[in-house]
Design goal:
289 residues, alpha+beta, Jelly Rolls, Arc Repressor Mutant, subunit A, 2 domains, 5-stranded antiparallel sheet, 4-stranded antiparallel sheet, 49% helix
Length: 289
Amino acid sequence: MPLPLLPQQDFYITHRILPFDYAMPALEASTDHYGMGYVISGDRFTITPKHTYYHRKGELGMMPPYLYHRTMPLSPEAGIPYEGILVKFSPKFIEPFTASVGQSVFDDIYSHRVSKFLPEDSEKILAHLRKMLETYKSDFPQKTALLQYMLYEFLLTVLWLRLDDDDSIPHNTTLTPPILEAIFYMEQNYSKNPSLEETATVAGYSPAYFSKLFHAQLGKSYSDYFAVIKLKHVQHLLLSTDKTITEIAIDTGYRHVSNLSEHFRKLTGMSPLQYRRLQKTNADALNPK
């Protein structure tokens, strides 16, 4: 279970650096606090019973209490340590905020499990968090009141600046633990192209039963869902690196560049290079120099 708040503690913030290959060993849930995690470097993949999420540099993950989840690095092949700022706060700590702006506003903020921002706005979010961290480490009588104010301002800033962009993968129904373990295994080993039979063994089922259960819970066949996983990793490398299509094909487990290009065009309607150029054009339009 994620570490709870200490007794009599209603707010906690820390800066942390984890190894690039750190992964949670099992599904866990916080029981006494809301969580937020800003990614400074590296990236994360998070799976919950109802969604799969991707957290990248400059993005803010939101985790409510009692939501079982498990995280792992999204692109461990990059070897970049996971650096971020983690915030925890109790429901009691946020009560004045919800009383002022309404529970529905707070729920809306946490309805986005991953909040994304324009580059300059992401820097503002990070500056807010660093100021909170600095205040948390200080010692003066009114510190708690100031931290409450800073948290409320931060949450409203997130609501104001976040983009309406959601690349999470919804699940067809609430996933059972064996299927969650299977997806986690697929993500961890996507570049090795694990077979249905191999993943069924991880889940503890026969291939035939696993295939039926997988489709029933995810609304996709094993091969179709795995294709989406690989696509997400290819898209991430296209946008976050200057690697050639050949290099990306090798990193993501394609035997030939032509296989990657065919797969990519089938799922997106465009080639990998067209996708890279289009996303760069869109980013330049949103963030003119």
